[in-house]
Amino acid sequence: MNITSAEFVTSATKPSQYPPAKFPEIAFAGRSNVGKSSLINTLANRRRLVKTGSTPGRTQLINFFDINNTVTFVDLPGYGYARVPAAVRRKWGPMIETYLSGRRTLKGVVVIMDIRRMPREEEFNLITWLEHYAIDRLFVLTKADKLSKTKQNKQRAAVAGSLMMDSSDLILFSAKSRKGREEVWRAIELLIAK
Ligand code: GDP
Fold first, then answer.
1. Whose CA is nearest to atom 26 of ligand 1?
2. Mean pLDDT of successive 10-residue segments in the chain (194 residues)?
3. DSSP per-residue string spanning the chain
4. Cα–ligand 1 centroid distance for 188 (angstroms)
5. Pocket, ligand 1, Cβ cutoff 6 A
């Protein structure tokens, strides 16, 4: 995808604050610190469209970005961050489920996992929701550059096994080397075209 524009649109916690549903939407979900912001920035060819490496705040927001006036990227708040107050954590589920279940223009969710970590309860819950709402999903393993090629393939197979998926359905990505950027875009374009 040739990026001509990438802009922040708005933040929201509830549907009345969502922007008008103009374009097909792709949402990004993952554990805090997984590399979600870096993935979005790499896809958008922008250094700081989304702020990276920041401590998750007390308010967790759904952020909307307009890419090329053709697709909306939706940055869902990261989950699994221990230091987020319990009250904020309790709101995560309903906020995300409301978005996932109600957004008509949502074309798919990119489920982001660190290649070095096995999926845990939060990932399984998210995937169950997506299946329940019949939302298409893409699986991206980030920080591939942290492992040798051999270990990348080993981990990819292990994660695939744990999710009962095919290894080839997990895209290996690195924001550092930009490995996998084109593959993720191609998969996103397929979701949008559906
Ligand atoms: P988020 O909390 O999921 O949005 O994660 P960020 O994108 O802010 O990244 C968290 C940390 O991991 C930052 O220090 C990033 O520089 C680092 N990081 C993200 N992606 C990669 C990657 O592909 N490779 C490496 N080596 N580090 C990464």
1. 143
2. 94 96 96 94 96 71 96 92 74 90 96 97 92 96 98 98 97 98 98 94
3. -----EEEEEEESSGGGSPP--S-EEEEEEBTTSSHHHHHHHHTT-SSSS--SPPP-SS--EEEEEETTTEEEEEPPPB--TTS-HHHHHHHHHHHHHHHHH-TTEEEEEEEEETTS---HHHHHHHHHHHHTT--EEEEEE-GGGS-HHHHHHHHHHHHHHTT--GGGEEE--TTT-TTHHHHHHHHHHHHH-
4. 21
5. 30, 32-38, 52-53, 78, 142-143, 145-146, 174-176
